Amino acid sequence: MSPDKDFTAPQAEAAIADYNIEESLDFSEVPPVVRYVICLIMTAMATAVAAGFDRYEAIPNLSLIYVLPVVAGSVFFGLGPSLFSAVLGALAYNFFFTEPRFSLAVADTANIWAIVLLFVVACIISAITAWGRRKGIDLERTRRMQAALKTYAGKMAASRSMEDSTKLTLSAVTGFFHSPAVIVFPAQADGEPEVQGAEKLSAIEIEAAKSAWDSRLAVTGGVYPYDESRFDFWPVSTASGQQAIIGIAFDPDRRPANPDGMMDIVALVFGTAVDRYRA
After folding, report:
1. What is the mean pLDDT of the chain?
2. Which CATH superfamily is domain 3-20+159-278 in?
3. According to the model, what pLDDT value does residue 22 have?
4. What are the boundaries of each domain within the chain?
5. E strands along 160-258, which residues?
């Protein structure tokens, strides 16, 4: 069986839809420049609202309007953009609403403290909200990971062949991490390992996979001595002594912080299939 026939690019796209655990969790896909521009726009809108109130009635706590962009920035974009909103809010309040107006100079000492207090309060709210946002995203990601693993395990239990189990595992891993995946079986009679998946492995990647076989440990790609390898490899150990390797070509800019926990479960489930059909 050739890799291209076993697991194709369209199948990989379908797998991402089936096992996606990242969709709509946060705005991590939004480019950083766009996040900061949105925070700038929100601060400008807060300035317009504050100017409307200030035009008709003097409001003692007008600066609190600038806390809203900080909260919105921390909820949707994280700590960096929210701190950016805090700085912009303090500068805008100083420039437009303290005497002398339309200047960053401050004539009244009390206004200096008001600006400093605005900035400090905004930073505290930003940090707390960003922390809560991160915890919420982590909890939701954990819930989705558990659901995705349950789906994968259920499909594997119903599989009827090694070919089906291999395709299901490639689909699951591709969907979990949005990255190309391969499964490598030990060398056959011709001395060449059997590679399943849409990607072809280079010589250095084959060596990295063999290292994972020999050491029974995960091998990280892009790290010496396999710094030219695109793939991280995880060994699949089985009760019958059969072996297999699961490889994932992570995007270097989006590599998960700790994929080992999820991959250990995938390797365990796939190992039962290897035992069942290849022992």
Report:
1. 84
2. GAF domain (3.30.450.40)
3. 60
4. 3-20+159-278, 32-138
5. 181-187, 193-196, 232-237, 243-248
